[in-house]
Specification:
Layout (H helix, E strand, L loop, with lengths): L1 H8 L2 H19 L7 H10 L12 H13 L3 H4 L1 H20 L4 H12 L2 H6 L5 H22 L4 H13 L5 H13 L10 H23 L3 H15 L9 H6 L2 H15 L8 H17 L10 H17 L3 H26 L8 H9 L9 H14 L2 H4 L2 E5 L2 H10 L8 E3 L2 H5 L9 E5 L3 H7 E9 L9 H4 L3 E8 L3 H6 L6
Parallel strand pairs: 1-2, 1-3
Antiparallel strand pairs: 3-5, 4-5
Helix pairs in contact: 2-6, 2-7, 3-4, 3-22, 6-7, 6-9, 6-17, 7-17, 7-18, 9-10, 10-12, 11-16, 15-16, 15-17, 20-22
């Protein structure tokens, strides 16, 4: 039995699994340095109201958030465990892609480490957000495509369809990759699969998995389309969709992994050995062109890179195999050492472990400004709780907390019960659909709202506190509208006020 375990552990797959587990362990041990990110708080707030859809995203990520809350409570490591596990699986799949294409151990490890230490993968493993799982389903679909191309067994279309269906329950941008798969097949000999019932079975499976969310969208008049149009217009206006091509290096890789991606493109289009896998190249290019045309954000394309990284690692292995043994061994050591050095640099600059306000913190928070939005939420809720405690007893039972955005509402819902606070109400995304309660509050503690808006809608508003954090970090909460007000005397009927409060973000 011991010998069998040793064989399994030191097999190619065993080493890939071990590397993925080490990657997961590293991030689990370092994921609780700061606090919850703004978008995590939104997700966790939605997780308390399980549904088949939400304004900003499909239902899978809030469902996982609910599981995390039920299993681990308010635990940063526990809540983020699913996102970390997804990155470990992606790392494993990158190595398995190489293995499926005939690559040996060196190329498998090379691809796995390159993918598992990319900036997007590290960042996606630090927060519970749909990006982490969207990444997983794209890579899983690509792995199934590789198995299809390698085996020519059309039954793999069912796996592709299942991965796309799960993607549709996670983030709608997976439709761009699905279109890339279709175009990739049409532009190669694999167009013959469009006559196969297995392909159409995969399409049916994807639609079946996504059907509950589609039904929710129909019932809610496709509100997510209005949300996506609003967010896209904002991103274009703010220039976030500009520099798409140049930002591929900044967001989706590092100089070492980009070399492997370029090698993967060469392998798919120019190498005779890669002719079988040319569909992968077209899938990538088609998805890239679609995102450029749609003015997508740079990181949207990140999940398409692992399949090319795997192809590039295979190409490198094949090229080195043709060299004299000593030269090949030397170049493999150089390539591996270079990748390891690049991986260490990426991990050092992206893992959220630096103490706040240190020199290293200033560096990593300038590279990843999301980290600043993880600071100060418990202090904000504590301040609101002190204001609530000072209200006259007769007002407390009729008081509510009005939050301007989902981060504030989510923080109050997460930390507020410990102080006996009522749940926050907000016009933000799905919070608006949950309305303002019955009976509506008569006194409101207003968080994150401009004073001009409050005076226009209430007869009296008094400043009662300020949003701060113990590190004096300047983030959205501490700089935008930091004054917390207590407001009384609604000037309009609640239904009219609420109807005009809806906002997307």
């Amino acid at each position: 039995m011991k010998k069998q375990w040793q064989i399994i552990l030191f097999s190619d797959v065993g080493i890939l699994i071990l590397l993925a587990l080490l990657r997961v362990l590293l991030q689990v041990l370092t994921n609780a340095q700061y606090g919850f990110f703004r978008d995590e708080l939104v997700t966790l707030d939605d997780a308390r109201h399980l549904a088949w859809g939400y304004v900003a995203y499909p239902p899978l990520t809030p469902f996982l958030g609910r599981v995390g809350l039920d299993l681990f409570g308010i635990s940063l490591n526990g809540i983020r465990l699913f996102a970390v596990a997804a990155q470990g699986i992606i790392m494993l799949l990158a190595g398995l892609m190489v293995r499926a294409m005939g690559g040996k151990r060196w190329a498998q490890v090379l691809a796995a480490v390159a993918v598992g230490t990319s900036p997007v993968s590290i960042v996606d493993g630090t927060i519970l957000q749909y990006g982490a799982f969207d990444y997983l389903w794209w890579v899983l679909a690509a792995y199934f495509v590789i198995r299809l191309l390698q085996s020519e067994d059309p039954r793999w279309w069912l796996g592709i369809g299942a991965a796309i269906g799960l993607g549709l329950l996670t983030k709608y941008t997976v439709v761009f990759f699905a279109a890339g798969i279709v175009l990739g097949a049409l532009l190669t000999k694999n167009r013959s699969y469009f006559k196969s019932p297995w392909l159409w079975g995969g399409v049916a499976l994807a639609l079946l998995i996504a059907f509950p969310n589609l039904l929710w969208q129909i019932q809610h008049k496709f509100i997510s389309l209005a949300f996506l149009n609003s967010i896209h217009a904002r991103d274009v206006r703010l220039g976030r969709a500009g520099g798409f091509l140049l930002d591929q290096i900044k967001f989706n890789g590092n100089p070492v992994t980009i070399i492997l991606v370029l090698a993967g493109i060469h392998f798919c289009f120019l190498s005779p050995a890669g002719r079988r896998y040319r569909t992968l190249g077209w899938m990538f290019l088609a998805t890239l062109v679609l995102f450029v045309a749609a003015k997508g954000r740079p990181y949207y394309l990140a999940p398409a890179y692992p399949m090319l990284t795997a192809a590039g690692a295979l190409w490198a292995e094949q090229r080195l195999a043709g060299l004299p043994e000593r030269s090949g061994r030397f170049l493999r050591v150089v390539a591996g050492s270079t990748l390891a050095a690049g991986a260490v640099c990426v991990v050092a600059l992206t893992l959220p472990v630096a103490p706040v306000n240190t020199a290293r913190w200033r560096v990593i928070s300038s590279l990843n400004e999301n980290l600043k939005e993880e600071i100060g939420w418990p202090e904000m809720v504590e301040t609101v709780a002190k204001i609530y405690a000072k209200l006259p007893d007769i007002e407390k039972s009729q008081a509510g907390i009005l939050a301007s955005n989902g981060g504030e509402a989510g923080a109050i819902s997460l930390y507020g019960p410990a102080y006996g606070l009522p749940s926050a109400i907000s016009g933000f995304n799905s919070s608006w659909e949950r309305s303002y309660g019955n009976p509506p509050p008569r006194t409101l503690i207003a968080v994150g709202l401009p004073v001009d808006f409050l005076k226009a809608n209430f007869e009296s508003c008094e400043a009662a506190g300020y949003i701060t954090n113990r590190y004096n970090i300047r983030n959205q909460e501490s700089t935008a509208y930091p004054v917390i007000y207590v407001c009384r005397g609604m000037r309009k009927p609640w239904p009219e006020f609420w109807r005009n409060l809806q906002c997307f973000g």
